[in-house]
């Protein structure tokens, strides 16, 4: 009874929160790079200068100064700091030269050095479901205000007045700059909502599993990837029961992407049908000629039925979803299916010789090319072989182990590798260059240790 209750409750509980199939941890290296890029792309400096020069309604000109112009804006230096549980604290150290005529008629330059600070809260946009930064509490801190006039020409009271006026004027001028930069940073998450193709077999969408979180050293985005067949059917991720976590040992503040074995398995389910093949080449790789005579070398029974050599035709069908497993340093692809061999007949349908049930695994090597995850395989082991039917009499399947092992390696692995050429999409966000990543296989996951160019 209790067990039934737990099954029901636990089912409910796990159904309630989406299990992440991929995790992304962004350290300061990537965030800094993004914000710098956004600054450049948004042409915020030019905009700030233009904005500062404009006459704006509701903003009084600085008393005692006329012909005010912003001459130049000092290249901002941006410093970011993670605020655990909140987001990123941003400080933009910049400044500008304001020119004008003073109340005495003299040309005056005011050099203002200031810091703009704001908290960029990391949220999940309710409408789009995308991660986004939203700035809060923008403040202007005047570091220094200097003029070219001797201080006696600028009475203290004016100086004070200037300071307080700047305090009123500058936030309206400078704070939109923070927002403008964030618009650019936020735009770089937008493609997350676009389903990415996995060959022609389906799509993958990196949907957020929950609101992103911030710690003292990084922001973390948990994905609950949606793997869909071309016809729209969703392939569920099988939960391994263990929470996904980044292993220890990565440099503080560095960035990583973790892809779970369950997620890769779901992606490869899209390719299952493509793994079914019929092979009828006479010569394959290093293999001896593919005919009944060669086969009879392993299975003498074949020679009795076919005294004259006939070409072989092989049909392989994968009848279970391919499964990816990972243990430290090693990843395997498990394939279960049937292998049927036929003797080709001139002008007639090939005749079945036998049908074997096979289970074998392939070793996967991962790499990234142009931001797509690629896999290449080699045969690891033939794990089981059993005879389902035979038209050449009873035989012990053990006699075929070497023949089938060589066949899989030479004839079938190239087919698998061909199918895997489609490559798997990686989350398209920010300006992450996955090609530079170092790949690590850990327990139940593949880790891409991201590097900045
Ligand atoms: C302004 O920002 C710079 C760079 O982050 C920092 O070193 C300095 O202490 C800040 N000054 C003030 C007054 O906040
Ligand atoms: C400007 O005024 C603020 C208070 O409004 C004060 O804290 C600050 O020290 C002043 N800065 C300068 C450069 O005078």
TrEMBL record:
GO terms for molecular function: lipid binding. Residues 1-18 form the signal peptide. Pfam families: LBP_BPI_CETP, LBP_BPI_CETP_C. Residues 252-450 form the Lipid-binding serum glycoprotein C-terminal domain. Coiled coil: none annotated. Keywords: Signal. Belongs to the BPI/LBP/Plunc superfamily. BPI/LBP family. This is BPI fold-containing family B member 6. The gene is BPIFB6.
């Amino acid at each position: 009874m209790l067990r039934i209750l737990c099954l029901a409750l636990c089912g409910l509980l796990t159904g309630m929160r989406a299990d992440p199939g991929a995790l992304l941890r962004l350290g300061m290296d990537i965030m800094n790079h993004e914000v710098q890029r956004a600054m450049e792309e948004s042409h915020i400096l030019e905009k700030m200068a233009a904005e500062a020069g404009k006459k704006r309604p509701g903003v009084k000109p600085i008393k005692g100064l006329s012909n005010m112009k912003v001459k130049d804006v000092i290249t901002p230096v941006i410093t970011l700091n993670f605020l655990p549980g909140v987001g990123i604290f941003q400080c933009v150290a910049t400044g500008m030269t304001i020119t004008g005529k003073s109340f005495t008629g003299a040309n005056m330059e005011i050099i203002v050095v200031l810091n703009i600070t704001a908290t960029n809260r990391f949220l999940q946009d309710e409408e789009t479901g995308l991660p986004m930064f939203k700035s809060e509490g923008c403040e202007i801190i005047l570091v220094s205000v200097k003029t070219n006039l001797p201080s006696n020409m600028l009475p203290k009271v004016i100086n004070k007045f200037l300071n307080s006026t700047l305090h009123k004027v500058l936030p309206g001028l400078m704070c939109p700059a923070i927002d403008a930069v964030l618009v650019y940073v936020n735009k770089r998450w937008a493609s997350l909502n676009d389903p990415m193709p996995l060959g022609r077999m389906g799509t993958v969408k990196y949907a957020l599993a929950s609101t992103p979180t911030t710690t003292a050293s990084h922001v973390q985005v948990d994905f609950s990837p949606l793997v869909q067949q071309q016809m729209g059917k969703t392939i569920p991720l099988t939960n391994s029961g263990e929470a996904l976590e980044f292993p220890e040992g990565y440099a503080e503040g560095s960035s990583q992407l973790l892809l779970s074995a369950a997620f890769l398995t779901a992606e490869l389910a899209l390719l299952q049908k493509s793994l079914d093949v019929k092979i009828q080449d006479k010569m394959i790789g290093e293999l001896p000629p593919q005919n009944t005579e060669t086969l009879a070398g392993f299975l003498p029974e074949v020679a009795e039925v076919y005294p004259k050599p006939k070409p072989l035709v092989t049909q392989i069908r994968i009848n279970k979803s391919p499964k990816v497993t990972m243990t430290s340093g090693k990843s395997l692809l498990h394939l279960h299916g049937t292998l049927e061999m036929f003797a080709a007949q001139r002008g007639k349908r090939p005749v079945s010789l036998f049908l074997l049930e096979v289970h074998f695994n392939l070793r996967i090597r991962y790499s990234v090319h142009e931001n797509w995850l690629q896999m290449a395989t080699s045969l690891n082991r033939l794990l089981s072989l059993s005879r389902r039917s035979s038209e050449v009499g009873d035989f012990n399947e053990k006699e075929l182990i070497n023949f089938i092992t060589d066949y899989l390696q030479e004839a079938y692995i190239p087919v698998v590798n061909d199918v895997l050429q489609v490559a798997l999409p990686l989350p398209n966000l920010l300006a992450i260059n996955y090609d530079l990543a170092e790949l690590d296989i850990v327990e139940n996951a593949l880790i891409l240790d991201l590097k900045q160019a």
